[in-house]
Every structure is written in structure tokens, then in C-alpha cells.
């Protein structure tokens, strides 16, 4: 069972699903509905299904690479058969589809496009210079997916894809810099490899900082931020700032910033 949990990449899965659930609850409240109503639960489960699909398929697609550089992972270690990974990925897709059906055609299509982008990353783009594109697409679509899922007006999240997408690209760069040496040994040509270790880290850090500072400035100039929102925003900036020393610190800082900035946005737009 532990091997199956590891197969779906639990840390990023928990982070993405938690943030999706929080955003769904915020938008639902703003629309005058329950924070944990049926639509919120369904769209959160749909996002969970997409994360199960993405994580399990990623380990299946990378099984030969992992056998060389990460032999303790579930498939190369023998803890999980490759066929089981495919079955689990199929189960994630089924969960996404089944929970999207009651929400309507638009969230169904948006969610499937986001999932298809992640599949393209796993099967084709993860070792190419365009490795950042699925992150830009899938995470850029996430706020729209959630808003349509809970029935909230799209203007509530109109600017979100322009911010979430670049932040996701920064997270992708930070994550691939963490695996820089392993990817180099197998000849990967992902964006971090093309840029080089230090440049990739600097670009990731700069993009994440730019998103945080840009959003903060927009809210401040618009007079939409209260004291607690400023504190949360500043905590997120500080979490990103300390990440300049290395990819592990930046990766952790970005997770903290995502939580802080989501809460700050909720307060500013509530």
C-alpha cells in the first residue's frame, strides 16, 4: 500500500489538491454557496483523480530512467509492477471523469485538457526543452476548472491563469534543478538542462518573486489588502526569497508561498 501511495507522488498531490479545495471553497462562499457543498467536493475529487493519473503515469513512463538513477522508487525496486501503475493511472482518470460528469460539460472539458497536457509531459515533453509548456497549460487552466466546477463567475479568476501558469513553470524549474545531476546522466534535454543549473535556479526564483511582487502591488494599489493579507503576502515573499540559496529551499518556499498567497487573495477578494 505504501508503494502505491508513493507512486502518485504524495507531496505534490496533497499540495495541489489542498490548494484546489481551498480555492473551490473560497469561490463557492463568494458565490453565496456552502464552503463544502457537493460541487466543491466533486471538483476537488476530480482534481485528485487528475493527480493520481499524472503521478502514476509519470512513474510508469520514467521506469527505465528511474532504474538507473532512482532504483528505490516503486517500479524499479519491484514493489509495484508496471501494469499496476497503468491500472492506477486509469483509475485516476476514471475518478476525474465520473466526478466531473455532474458538474457539466465546461469543467469536464477544461479538466480533461489539463490532464491531457500532463499526460503529454509524462510521455513526450519531460525530457525536451518544451518541458515547461504542460505546467503553463495545466496549472493555468486549474483556476478556470475550479471556478466552472463550483459555478462561480469566471471574472473572479480572470487574471489567475496569467499568474498561476508562470508560478507553475518556476516550480517546474526548481524541481528539475533538484534532479539536475540524475537528468544529466541520462541525457535529458529538459528546460533546466538547456539553461544550466545556476541559470535555471535563478530564472525559477525570479519568476516566483515576480509573481508575488506583481500580485501584491496590484492589490495594494487597488486598496484591497488589509493588515493580515499584507502579513501573509510578505511571508510568501520571504519564503521565496530564502530559496535563492538552492533548489530544495526554493521548492519548500514555493509551497509555503502558494498557501500564504491563496489565503491573502481570499481575504482581498472576499
Q: What's the structural domain tally?
A: 2
Overall morphology? globular
- pLDDT averaged residue by residue: 91
Q: Number of DSSP helices?
A: 13
Q: Can you identify the CATH superfamily of the largest domain?
A: UbiA prenyltransferase
Q: Would you identify the regions where 5 or more consecutive residues have pLDDT less than 50?
A: none
Percent of residues in helical segments? over 70%
The CATH topology of the largest domain comes to: Tetracycline Repressor, domain 2
Keywords:
77% helix, Four Helix Bundle (Hemerythrin (Met), subunit A), Tetracycline Repressor, domain 2, 270 residues, mainly alpha
How do the helices and strands line up, and which of them pair or pack?
Blueprint: H1 2-7, H2 10-30, H3 38-61, H4 63-69, H5 82-100, H6 105-125, H7 133-150, H8 160-178, H9 180-185, H10 191-195, H11 197-221, H12 227-241, H13 247-269
Structure commentary:
The chain contains 13 helices and no strands. The protein is mainly alpha-helical. It has two domains: 1-134, UbiA prenyltransferase (Tetracycline Repressor, domain 2), CATH 1.10.357.140; 159-270, Four Helix Bundle (Hemerythrin (Met), subunit A) (Up-down Bundle). Helix 2 runs parallel beside helix 13 (247-269), helix 3 packs antiparallel against helix 5 and helix 8 (160-178) packs antiparallel against helix 11 (197-221). The N and C termini lie far apart (41 Å). The mean pLDDT is 91.
Give a quick rundown of the structure.
The chain has helices at 2-7, 10-30, 38-61, 63-69, 82-100, 105-125, 133-150, 160-178, 180-185, 191-195, 197-221, 227-241, 247-269. It is mainly α and 270 residues long.
Amino acid at each position: 500500500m505504501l508503494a502505491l501511495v508513493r507512486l502518485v507522488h504524495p507531496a505534490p498531490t496533497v499540495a495541489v489538491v489542498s490548494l484546489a479545495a481551498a480555492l473551490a471553497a473560497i469561490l463557492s462562499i463568494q458565490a453565496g454557496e456552502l464552503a463544502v457543498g457537493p460541487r466543491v467536493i466533486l471538483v476537488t475529487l476530480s482534481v485528485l483523480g487528475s493527480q493520481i493519473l499524472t503521478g502514476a503515469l509519470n512513474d510508469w513512463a520514467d521506469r527505465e530512467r528511474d532504474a538507473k538513477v532512482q532504483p528505490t522508487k516503486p517500479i524499479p525496486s519491484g514493489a509495484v509492477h508496471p501494469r499496476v501503475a497503468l491500472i492506477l493511472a486509469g483509475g485516476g482518470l476514471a475518478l476525474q471523469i465520473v466526478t466531473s460528469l455532474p458538474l457539466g460539460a465546461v469543467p469536464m472539458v477544461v479538466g480533461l485538457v489539463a490532464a491531457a497536457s500532463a499526460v503529454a509531459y509524462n510521455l513526450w515533453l519531460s525530457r525536451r526543452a518544451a518541458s515547461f509548456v504542460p505546467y503553463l497549460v495545466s496549472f493555468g487552466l486549474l483556476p478556470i476548472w475550479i471556478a466552472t466546477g463550483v459555478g462561480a463567475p469566471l471574472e473572479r479568476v480572470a487574471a489567475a491563469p496569467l499568474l498561476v501558469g508562470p508560478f507553475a513553470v518556476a516550480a517546474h524549474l526548481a524541481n528539475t534543478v533538484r534532479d539536475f545531476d540524475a537528468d544529466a546522466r541520462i541525457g535529458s534535454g529538459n528546460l533546466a538542462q538547456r539553461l544550466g543549473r545556476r541559470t535555471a535556479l535563478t530564472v525559477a526564483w525570479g519568476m516566483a518573486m515576480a509573481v508575488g511582487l506583481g500580485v501584491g502591488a496590484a492589490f495594494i494599489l487597488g486598496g484591497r489588502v488589509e493588515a493580515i493579507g499584507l502579513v501573509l503576502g510578505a511571508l510568501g515573499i520571504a519564503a521565496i526569497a530564502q530559496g535563492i540559496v538552492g533548489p530544495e529551499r526554493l521548492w519548500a518556499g514555493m509551497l509555503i508561498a502558494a498557501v500564504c498567497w491563496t489565503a491573502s487573495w481570499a481575504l482581498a477578494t472576499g
